[in-house]
Write a structure and sequence with these properties.
29% of the residues lie in helices and 27% in strands. The protein is of the alpha+beta class. A hairpin with a 4-residue loop joins strand 3 and strand 4. It starts with a strand and ends with a strand.
Amino acid sequence: MPIIDLLKENHDHLEAAAQVLLRGFKGLSPAWTTIEAAREEVLECVSLEGIVRAFLNEERRLLGWIGGRSAYDGHVWELHPLVVDPDFQGQGIGSGLIKDFESQVAARSGITILLGTDDETNLTNLGGAEVYPEIWRAMAGLENRQRHPFEFYQKHGYVVAGIIPDANGYGKPDILMAKRVRQP
């Protein structure tokens, strides 16, 4: 099953990526609740200098995709977004996309990947909670309540590097995670 570059010239793949984004984040984020918003996100990702990769099945159907852009003079890459069609989750597609993305970043001399995994729907104990003034204590006690993706990333070697309290409104933090992908 190939993982390919998602190119702005391939309109069929862009539309499929928008559909997967819309379905994959339904009920988890208010960011992409319309197909128009999902299309805008896909176009923004493929228009920037960065990495955008798509997973295709044997029939060349797009089942998931991942994007990222460089920061800190190329030393750090932000992973944004990663999404797999809900009908195909749990089959290794997300894991394959992450592994491919890490290889792509390392090949570009990137050292660390950073990502934010928002909790806008109280899937962790930080959602809806007051984390001030001891943010570090809240981070140390992070618990998954309902399939929040931070544990998926932990299984792939990512660690919680911080939280941004109220990033998406009161009690809606962004959980920052990081992983080194290239050794000195």
